[in-house]
Amino acid sequence: MAASCITYYLEMTSASELQAKPPRDDLQIVECEVPQPALNRFLYQLVGGSWGWGDLLAWSDAQWQALVEQPCHRTWVAYHRGAIAGYYELHRPDQCNAEIRYFGLAPQFLGCGFGGALLSHALESAWQWPGTERVWVHTCSLDHPAALANYQARGLRVYKQEADEQA
């Protein structure tokens, strides 16, 4: 029997809608100002492995480089006690709609209370990027069980959902 996967598309159209969680003293979040495609590949696998992220696994080094070295693409890494706790990528190819392209925590840090603070940082960074008029993200029912609730708690609203049959 096929299982259904529901994809949720969420958006925020004003920075005033952000319901931020306060930053945590034990979580340092740093922008990777020098693009490193191999780092993005590693982060994608580290965070996405538990959730079946596979759409970019077959990408070549050149494809990773083409994505990460665009001026419309930015990456932040969260550290806890020197270890990578999570990351997020912002992508804004049209100069006004910022997508949280990838977001998540490393497996060792799930359930530690870092998700709300990291997502708040991601949304703040998107709104601080001059020209942003809208921030959006998508998630699905196969993601971490708290993902959708975290997005909504930070002020993002579902504007579309789609059901896909999975084999």
Automatic annotation (TrEMBL):
It holds the Pfam family Acetyltransf_1. Residues 30-167 form the N-acetyltransferase domain. InterPro entries: Acyl_CoA_acyltransferase, Bact_Acetyltransf, GNAT_dom. The keyword Glycosyltransferase does not apply. It comes from Pseudomonas cremoricolorata. The lineage of its organism: Bacteria, Pseudomonadati, Pseudomonadota, Gammaproteobacteria, Pseudomonadales. Keywords: Acyltransferase, Transferase. One of its GO terms (molecular function) is acyltransferase activity, transferring groups other than amino-acyl groups. This is GCN5 family acetyltransferase.
